[in-house]
Specification:
By secondary structure, the protein is an alpha/beta fold. The chain is built from eleven helices and ten strands. The chain has an eight-stranded parallel β-sheet with strand order 3-4-5-6-7-8-9-10. The chain has a two-stranded antiparallel sheet with strand order 1-2. The model has no long low-confidence stretch (mean pLDDT 97).
Length: 274
Amino acid sequence: MKYVTLNNGVKMPILGLGTFRSKDEDAYNATLHALKCGYRHIDTAWIYGNEKAVGKAIKDSGLNREDLFITTKLWNTHQGYESALKAMEESLDNLGLDYIDLYLIHWHKSYEKSIESYRALVKLYKDKKTRAIGVSNFNIHHLMNIVDNFDIAPMVNQVETHIELQNHILNDYCTENKIQLEAYAPLMSQDISKLLNNEVMIKIAAKHKKSVPQIAIKWLIERNIVVIPKSINNSRIESNFDVFDFNLSEEDMLEIRKLNKGNKIFPEFDNVEF
């Protein structure tokens, strides 16, 4: 496993299991299987409704807590100072954990809400309820609002990132400010057929004797972007993890870069109605 080092020195596995839309038994089984396969990084969120299932899988895995990296997120209706503090307690209770490894503001709602919520995250970080803090679905202007108002910069920004939405400018800003970019929907979520049928990706996959999803995951890892592919299928969970025995060439990387279309699957960060 490759790790990235966050701006506070915490090491984060570069590959993890996403659990978006994974419910109850599916979330439990996927998390438990992933942990058995070698995953040590699990990403969940309060709004997914599966924190309890993920927590049970963590417990049943028998793994040492300090060997795991668990992320959860502050939902939009819980944003604000006091409400964020309460939300963390609920998530900890759901997961059956004493602390979270990474706590994220799930979506940008307003500059004022972001400030109050992030102020709560800073307190949670100082109180050791979480080892790292950050945001999700924040663009550069949203990040600047945090960076300019706090001494502790976000450690992570988790955003939709895949071959058709490559986020080079956002990643450059994050790198300059020591914010780790993390990719959700790396396999293009419900638009996965666009990925699987892409001729360039098929050609590169054949060259390396790997699958197209494995190439898509490895491409992000080569960019030093944390990636959390979601699956509830055991064989795909295993396949998504089997990406550390090959490297993409500079030519491969350039070919994939040409696939960027700015094609967003999930809502624009400034137009979130939920």
